[in-house]
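Help!! Second protein's tokens look totally different from the first
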Amino acid sequence: MKSKWITAFTAILLLTAKEAPAEADSDDAIISHVPRTRVESSGLASIGYSKRRHVLEIEFSNGAVYRYVDVAPSVYRDLMSAESKARYYDLNIKRNYRSVRVRPRVKDQPDN
């Protein structure tokens, strides 16, 4: 019985944390409701965190926004207090957490 519950729970998690394809249509785009704070950084423009969902969102200087899932609150606190946020990101977040692109780089966005 316990393994059925774990399997069902895992399936629900996978469905709710579905990754968007790299070239998602605007209809498939993820809409962010995580407020972000502007930061002083060479590579990062703003950072937001959802305590309830353990979701970290980072807007990069090039305009791209990525969401990182299953991020502990301590990682967010350490990132925000790091002397070099870009270096902390490179060493502790990049390639260590599953990510989903929320918004493409400004250069990649279609002209309206």
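Here's the second one for comparison:
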Amino acid sequence: MSNEINRRRTADHKALLPAKQMIRINGIPLAYREAGEGSPVFLLHGMNGESGSWRHQLHGLSDRYRVIAWDAPGYGASGSVGSSIESLSEAAFSLIKELGAENPVLVGHSMGGVVAGQMAIERPDSLRALVLSCSHWGYGRPVGEELMPRYSKRIDEIRSMSIEEFAQLRASRMVDEDADPEVVAFLAEMSKAVTAEALEKVGRANQETDTRPGLSKLDLPLYLLYAEKDRVIKKERTKEFIQALPAARVMLLAGVGHAPYVEDAANYNRTVRSILEEVWPDKPAGNAS
């Protein structure tokens, strides 16, 4: 597929996105996109993304819900905070409060799921449910230890490559080898929101966190979504996470890799919608696109 077609299709994706909005909290700018009205759903993207990564969910779930997606601190148009998981959790809760989106369902993907898990541990009474998508618990390493290769390698890559090369590399590693080139092009566009500083901070937050003890005691509806062809979160690690959280409802996303929200957006939206309908059963039926 030609580069021109890829650029045009990526532009089409972006054209359908709600515009970014900005809010300052304690002097720090936080960017987000929002669509729809009703019960709030807060989306937290992964390490190679930004709020626009959730394009299909902002479009496909907003007929019934107020869907909010942030640029995590250090990503896209958002300013930076500290490198602890607590600082990321606090920033997310502050944004939710400022937007009047109390008691949301959190949907956290990959790195975003680690942040969402910490949020649920800290303030379970402030949330309606927790959905962890292709995620994990962190690595529980000592504070201040040298960064693991899985994070230090990314930092080396982003510093040694152009942002276009880096974004294409990361996008290609998220999906199955025979993924639609349009999907890869979209993921690459979203990956351009990443910076070396953000990678270092969220990498350290992930590395020094272990949410399993807190999540195992959680009195909150908890859902684990995992992808059949995920090459980022290995099957053994997913299995260990499932075993650590016996109260969680586990749901398989068939035929997709680490970006199911765009690889098979229709099925991903149906899955998330089924969860939302369990959480808020009084809402009328709607379009499952």
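Reply: Different proteins will give different token patterns, so don't panic. Strands lie at 21-25, 28-35, 40-44, 66-70, 105-109, 129-133, 222-227, 249-253.
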